[in-house]
Amino acid sequence: MHRAAPKDDFDESALSVTEPKTQAAGVEAVTVALERAVEEMGVVRTARTLARVNQRHGFDCPGCAWPEPTGTRRPAEFCENGAKAVAEEATLRTVTPEFFAAHSIEELNEKSGYWLGQQGRLTHPMVLRPGDTHYSPIEWDAAYALIADHLRGLSSPHEAVFYTSGRTANETAFLYQLLVRSFGTNNLPDCSNMCHESSGAALTSSIGIGKGSVTIDDFKRADLIIVAGQNPGTNHPRMLSALGEAKQHGAKVIAVNPLPETGLLNFKDPQTVKGFTGGISIADDFLQIRLGGDMALFQGLGKLLFEAEDRAPGTVVDRAFVDAHTAGFAEYEKQMRAVDLGVVEQATGLTRADLDRTAALLAESKAVIICWAMGLTQQVHGVATIEEATNLLLLRGMIGKPGAGVCPVRGHSNVQGDRTMGIWEKMPEPFLAALDSRFGISSPREHGWDTVDSIRAMRDGRGRVFFGMGGNFVSATPDTEVTEAALRNCDLTVQVSTKLNRSHVVHGRTALILPTLGRTDEDLQAGARQQVSVEDSMSMVHLSTGRLKPVSAHLRSEVAIVCELAQALFGPGHSVPWAEFQRDYDRIRDAIANVVPGCADYNAKVRQRNGFQLPHPPRDSREFRTTTGKANFGVNDLRWLPVPEGRLILQTLRSHDQYNTTIYGLDDRYRGIHNGRRVVLVHPDDIAALGFAEDDLVDLISEWTDGVERRVEAFRVVGYSTPRGNAAAYYPETNPLVPLDHVAERSNTPVSKAVTIRLERHVHRR
Ligand SMILES: Nc1nc2c(c(=O)[nH]1)N[C@H]1C(S)=C(S)[C@@H](COP(=O)(O)OP(=O)(O)OC[C@H]3O[C@@H](n4cnc5c(=O)[nH]c(N)nc54)[C@H](O)[C@@H]3O)O[C@H]1N2
Ligand SMILES: Nc1nc2c(c(=O)[nH]1)N[C@H]1C(S)=C(S)[C@@H](COP(=O)(O)OP(=O)(O)OC[C@H]3O[C@@H](n4cnc5c(=O)[nH]c(N)nc54)[C@H](O)[C@@H]3O)O[C@H]1N2
Ligand SMILES: [Mo]
């Protein structure tokens, strides 16, 4: 069967820079995607696999959480980056016990994440015992016994940490949290802690539920869509189709971003014939905002909306909605009227004309959607920023009405579902009570550790066993040096994974790799094909069925791993029927129906044509289950990010050729970066003002109040369109710069989009 060999580890000196692209997607995207897929899986598997992405009887794309259309699905309901995600998982390359015998940990430690990921799918459970230089094979039962021994040997269940990444399906997530709570802890950190936690915190406080209030069909009814702090051309490409369609229905789109992201400004839909001829411009307006300036923007717009109301009373503020459904309006109005627009201009880097234009659009629009992602959430004042965005919608009565609402665009394909299923270190009491009564367990009530607190605990020796259900904890988390030491400080680290990554190489005294099936793989239990379910960014839940033959007979499904581990840990006679759950996933769904709110009749409902939508009280009936029983105007003092003299504020972001810590390739095509990743994008005037020239090699040093020097070396300086004082570089290479303690207020999310740095000329050291 045809498949290309993995590429050698790469050399940054081959890096080249060209002008950024002016248009996203189109024919080139399709070509790139297919080439990548054929390289990994060969022609036949490519054709069979890509035809099933996001189809009703197929599997859910493991790429992003953007929903599928509710009506007719196009023959290819995926995008370039979805195809890359599928190819990455469905690859025929394998990492076998022979591979581990040939490569020591020391050697693997020197390899890039790109190299590690390219080696292929893990095929066999592997163990590394204290003093070992190489991983060696272990049988599944022995692996479970080893984990169970370690867990039982802890002085408290709270010394164990159970991480989840957002690809885990609902059935696994539900059983996994059940195992963890049966064991006796709420230490359930997840990738969401680093992702949309700020959205959850803000929305729960404002509207009583931490999820978005729009559906995919609302995009056709909106007349104004604001996309802030998000790069959909790369990270949610199918969203561009929805935005394109919205525009055909007359909507205006405003992009709020420090960078002129290609997809947002211009887009060719590869799915339509038109895509092959001409494109459309997505954004009607582009607000090139300074990093961290969004809170000021939303407050400035709030002030201007009140002024517009003064000029034409009764036309801007939706009095009926405000009176019937909200609390805190008077205080909000008072604060908005006091906003200083001069400060807003300074904080945002925008002009008064920009603000006036945007406010006018907001004031006249009948249906407004605000979308956002990491640009807003990974800021110190991310929660407050999202509250301010929500305030604007509340003021205009834009929640719980067709074509309007809040739209946090989730990352991982099932990160929202994992939360619904109980993956959260502070699940509310009614959920725990339902779990206890259904299963006869007593879930602990004290809150567990989130991601940042888990790192602190492992660093300090309070966390001793780390269990990762997917993901790449070491590379995804902040303060890499601290996190690596924290993991190494554990007695045991266990990674349930599809592919090799750095979290296998940076390990506890004993380490296990448990290879698992991915979304595309066929999952047979007791001879029958099993299905799993997932929830998208808009609360739609549906089934996903993998059909590919697994690359190894030793792979186990995530569900099987949880059930078998539970039996090893709890022994026979446990009150949870683990073996039955493993044999037939319908039984898990029955239990989900009993415990999880909104999931009654789950088995039947996930089998409907488009699955089903979970309830969302504000969306469905303008009901707000907050502390006041109404939607709350969040009142916050303005926060923004002045740039210290001689410094830059750095955002860490994704290239077009990666999925979080998985590096697909070395080209950020849209931004004109080729064959390398160690670049720092800086405004040309800042490059000169700081005494550098384009193409110089620099070290980036982050400055934080603890005085610790955090440095990453040898980054190429690239002149780029970004506000003065702001810079951008790729994650995860820059994670060593993000201080563990630099977290968002109220969500504890690492501040990955605002790291104060200075540049130093790179000196080659040996
Ligand atoms: N192909 C692909 N798809 C993905 C992923 C991937 O890695 N690759 N990751 C998935 C995951 S887990 C997630 S969470 C999402 C992430 O999706 P995004 O949030 O789009 O991801 P980032 O690359 O972090 O981009 C952040 C965007 O916000 C802008 N930004 C940064 N700071 C600010 C700010 O202060 N204000 C404003 N207004 N804008 C700002 C940046 O310029 C950039 O355009 O994508 C998901 N989908
Ligand atoms: N500096 C900085 N740091 C960030 C961010 C940032 O913008 N800047 N973004 C943050 C965000 S938004 C997120 S969501 C996190 C992501 O954090 P994670 O979710 O932990 O990281 P990923 O890179 O998505 O995980 C990839 C690994 O998951 C495993 N995997 C893939 N599919 C499956 C599967 O089906 N099952 C199992 N068991 N394993 C699988 C593979 O082994 C692969 O190596 O990173 C965060 N970190
Ligand atoms: Mo994410």
TrEMBL record:
Positions of region (Disordered): 1-22
Q: Which SUPFAM superfamilies did the record assign? A: ADC-like, Formate dehydrogenase/DMSO reductase, domains 1-3
- Cofactor(s) it depends on: Mo-bis(molybdopterin guanine dinucleotide); [4Fe-4S] cluster
Is 4Fe-4S given among the entry's keywords? yes
Record domain Molybdopterin dinucleotide-binding: where: 648-753
Q: Which UniProt keywords apply?
A: 4Fe-4S, Iron, Iron-sulfur, Metal-binding, Molybdenum, Oxidoreductase
Cite the InterPro entries for this sequence: Asp_de-COase-like_dom_sf (IPR009010), MopB_CT_YdeP (IPR037951), MoPterin_dinucl-bd_dom (IPR006657), Mopterin_OxRdtase (IPR006656), Mopterin_OxRdtse_a_bac (IPR010046), Prok_molybdopt-oxidoreductase (IPR050123), YdeP_MopB (IPR041953)
What the entry lists under CDD domains is as follows: MopB_CT_ydeP, MopB_ydeP
Q: What range(s) does the Molybdopterin oxidoreductase domain occupy? A: 121-495
Q: Does the keyword ATP-binding apply?
A: no
Judging by the UniProt lineage, the source's domain of life is: Bacteria
Q: Which family does it belong to?
A: Belongs to the prokaryotic molybdopterin-containing oxidoreductase family.
Name the PANTHER family on file: PROTEIN YDEP, RESPIRATORY NITRATE REDUCTASE
Put simply, this protein is called FdhF/YdeP family oxidoreductase
